[in-house]
Design brief:
Length: about 300
């Protein structure tokens, strides 16, 4: 019933657009030179065009899990403190974007940097089409700026990698054999000055066949942490299977496509000029601060539209 309701809602949007377009055509046939009717037609045509453009990119969101939540992981690249600070800036950017969308977020795991920033963070994002949107952000992100950590105030280039996985429901057939998982339980650590829990509630899962390690320590209950860790593991295993399928499809089609997760998708330049440019779609803006504050929709929608074209 949930799937039926979702499909009916999607179809209803397009049926409404079709009905409005037909009404406008009918009105055009009788408008003749009536100034009032022609003005009304012009306004309706502009409104239809605007809504069509807003809805067009959703045509790309037809994957099995596109309508559900997402799990994103941000990893600092080489470069020490610089890259770790960049990873934390990206974390803030995606949290701001999700907030503007009305999505709910939860940080399930984080490794702090030695001096500043973060080495990695995993965030769950819940909301309509969260995975469908965020899959556009998968890849390496490059930052160019004057380093706040360099005494000589020199320009530095930093990289961070974004992984995006769907949140897989319990009834999805992702086979995780109990014998394939090794579970470690340990004390959850608190921030400086805070007391740590006396009970071992943090959970670390080792998936032996793939070598994937998932940690969750944010919940008070060991059971809750285990459930969240399993959910993340399912998402990562699904992503691996999807990569295998995509690679096989590319091979059969004869396309020279490499699933290089470290490939750069976007550059954020703060010095010597101001620009953010997506290297896949050539969409760019001269106001990088608005992008870093979560204004990502122009980049996401442009990428989704290229997928509709393909």
């Amino acid at each position: 019933m949930q799937e039926l309701n979702a499909l009916q809602e999607q179809i209803g949007v397009w049926d409404s657009l079709q009905s409005r377009a037909q009404d406008a055509l009918d009105l055009a046939e009788i408008a003749d030179n009536d100034a009032g009717m022609l003005t009304e037609l012009q306004q309706e045509a502009l409104a239809l065009e605007e809504e069509l453009e807003e809805r067009e990119f959703t045509l790309a969101l037809d994957g099995k899990y596109d309508s559900g939540g997402a799990i994103i992981s941000i990893h600092a690249g080489a470069g020490g403190t610089e890259a770790q600070d960049w990873a934390e800036m990206l974390q803030r950017m995606y949290l701001r974007w999700a907030e503007k969308k009305g999505f709910t977020t939860e940080i399930t795991d984080m490794t702090q940097g030695e001096e500043a920033g973060i080495k990695s963070v995993t965030i769950t994002v819940e909301g309509p089409y969260a995975y469908g949107f965020l899959q556009a952000e998968r890849g390496a992100h490059r930052l160019v700026r004057l380093s706040p950590f360099d005494a000589g105030n020199r320009r530095h280039t930093s990289f961070a990698k974004l992984e995006v996985m769907p949140i897989i429901d319990e009834d999805i057939e992702i086979d995780i054999a109990p014998n394939d998982i090794r579970i470690d339980v340990f004390l959850a650590s608190g921030a400086g000055g805070q007391s740590v829990q006396k009970n071992a509630t943090a959970v670390r899962l080792h998936h032996e066949p793939t070598g994937i390690v998932v940690t969750c320590q944010n919940e008070r209950s060991q059971t809750q942490n285990r459930e969240i860790a399993l959910k993340i593991l399912r998402g990562k295993l699904y992503a691996i299977e999807q990569e295998k399928i995509a690679a096989e499809k590319a091979r059969l089609k004869g396309e020279n496509v490499q699933a290089d997760f470290g490939s750069q998708i976007r550059s954020y330049v703060l010095h010597p000029y101001q620009m953010v440019k997506d290297l896949r779609t050539n969409v760019e803006t001269a106001t990088p601060q608005t992008v870093l504050d979560g204004d990502l929709d122009p980049f996401i929608e442009a990428w989704l539209k290229t997928q509709v074209g393909e």
